[in-house]
Amino acid sequence: MGPTPTELTESDAASTAVGCPVDHHGYQPFEMDDPFDAYARLRRDEPVMYDERIGYWVVSRWADVRAVFEDWETFSSENAQAPVRQRGPAATRIMKDGGFTAYSGLSARIPPDHTRIRAIAQRAFTPRRFKALEPTIRENTRTALRAMLASADHTGDFLRDVAYDIPTVTILTLLGVDPSMVPTYKRWSDSRAAMTWGDLDDDEQVPHAHNLVEYWQECQRLVAEAHEKGGDHLIADLVEAQGAGAEITDHEIASLCYSLLFAGHETTTTLIANSVRVLLSHREAWERIVADPTAIPGAIDEVLRYSGSIVAWRRRALADAEIGGVAVPKGADILLLMGSANRDEAVFAHPDQFDITRDDARNHLSFGFGIHYCLGNMLAKLQDRIVLEETVAAVPSLRLAGTEPIRFRENLSFRVPTSVPVTWEA
Ligand code: HEM
Questions:
Q1: 396 preceded by cis ω (within 30°)?
Q2: How far apart are CA 213 and CA 390, in angstroms?
Q3: Sheet of 155-157: strands edge to edge?
Q4: How far is 234 from 370, CA to CA, in rounded Å?
Q5: Which of 20, 225, 257, 360 is most enclosed, with most CB atoms within 10 A?
Q6: Contact by Cβ (8 Å): 336, 315
Q7: What are the Cα distances from residue 271, in Å, to 72, 179, 265, 268?
Q8: Cβ–ligand 1 contact at 373 (below 6 Å)
Q9: Distance from the CA of 178 to the center of ligand 1, in angstroms?
């Protein structure tokens, strides 16, 4: 039996207080509602901390996070897509029986494979394709806003009504997939986020395992279809490149689809939702972009710094190494807290202030850094810009509704609000 409260020694009592190593400075790996105070304590008291609850070395200062991202020879991304919680026997069997062999498109690949595939994918990610999508994104935004603004009681959920569909339709269009598949891809993507970065027990994993099998089978079918029919879309471009001698297999193309059909919308839905949420909760910033929409790009960089869609990403040490003067052993799994790095007082003045005029917001690490730097960053920012431009024009009186604080889904890496309730004047 453990000690009763009166039997606690002074050092026991001290070790249970917030700020002491035993409680990891208040850091809760899957808790996303408000991690920023814990991040600040980590930066101050233990910027490189081993967290045995997840088996990761947690890195919280900007300079250290950037240095690890940059040194890909010592710190590989091979664990970036590994399940944080081990797969249970039932989920493992479902995935094996379903022929699930998907591997990361790019983010968990390492050179030379990563270099080879990224060069081919980058050629298909042309600014021409993005530019061509702009009118459709704008039209889809106007349609979504009109539908939301038709609500009789002048209330809506910006996440559900606007942010949810737009990036998904965009990435499906880019890959030549029928946009009516949006709800299916959202279901599959939720499963992917939960299965890889969530804290699920064995039973909870089962329905998600079925979804991942369906998702992977569909990616393989899309590649087969591109071989058969061709088309004016990214998968057909990759298949064509393969035909012209580019060194990429069908399995690698299907894996890229598996990555893009998740990464290409999940994080952008969050960026759009966070942009509206954070701008509306700093009214002067909202009024500023209403008065001057050319301030929107700066505001987007500041949202990415202040409230990024991904607050933590993973690496593995390939050799004994040092991070910020702390020795980490070969094989160590490392969790880079970009959400903390972006609030590092050593880099950003008054880091907890949301300021859309700051000139160094672009130094955020929300898209990573180095050889894996996000391939879709321009597309994400383009969509957020269009949505904000259309929203301030259509409904400048928009404001947050409700008095309850907005909650965020539990996850190791993705910080996703559950809703963004809004209201407006008639
Ligand atoms: C706000 C939106 C987005 C955020 C916050 C985000 C964030 C990230 C991060 C943190 C990485 C890992 C970087 C690293 O390991 O150094 C990454 C990689 C990647 N992202 Fe994004 N992303 C976003 C949107 C997109 C979009 C729209 C696409 C595709 C259309 C995309 C495709 C990719 C790909 C393919 C990679 C892997 C790159 C590589 O390993 O070479 N992302 N992204």
A1: no
A2: 38
A3: 155-157, 421-423, 399-400
A4: 24
A5: 257
A6: yes
A7: 27, 21, 10, 5
A8: yes
A9: 23
Residues 48 and 328: their CA atoms lie apart, in Å, by 9
Who's near 223: CB < 8 A, 6+ residues apart?
235, 239, 250, 253, 254, 257
Low-confidence ranges of the chain (pLDDT < 70): 1-22
Q: Which CATH code fits 32-423? A: 1.10.630.10
- Testing ligand 1's pocket by substitution, the residue of 120, 238, 266, 367 carrying the most ligand atoms inside 8 A of its CB is 367
Report the separation in Å between the CA atom of 340 and the middle of ligand 1, taken as the mean of its atom positions.
18
Q: How many whole angstroms from 367 Cα to the centroid of ligand 1? A: 6
- Pick from 240, 264, 290: which is nearest to 392 by CA? 290
Question: Token digits for 273?
Answer: 């939702």
With a 6 Å cutoff on the Cβ, whether 69 touches ligand 1 is yes
Q: Is 263 in the pocket of ligand 1 (CB under 6 A)?
A: yes
Tell me the pLDDT tens digit for each residue of 216-256. Answer: 999 999 999 999 999 999 999 999 999 999 999 999 999 99
Quick one: pLDDT at residue 11?
31
pLDDT of res. 21: 52
> What φ, ψ does residue 124 adopt, rounded to 5°?
-80, -20
pLDDT tens for 268-310 read 999 999 999 999 999 999 999 999 999 999 999 999 999 999 9
Structure tokens at 188: 């599959």
The whole-angstrom separation of Cα 333 and Cα 412 is: 14
Q: How far apart are CA 348 and CA 360, in angstroms?
A: 7
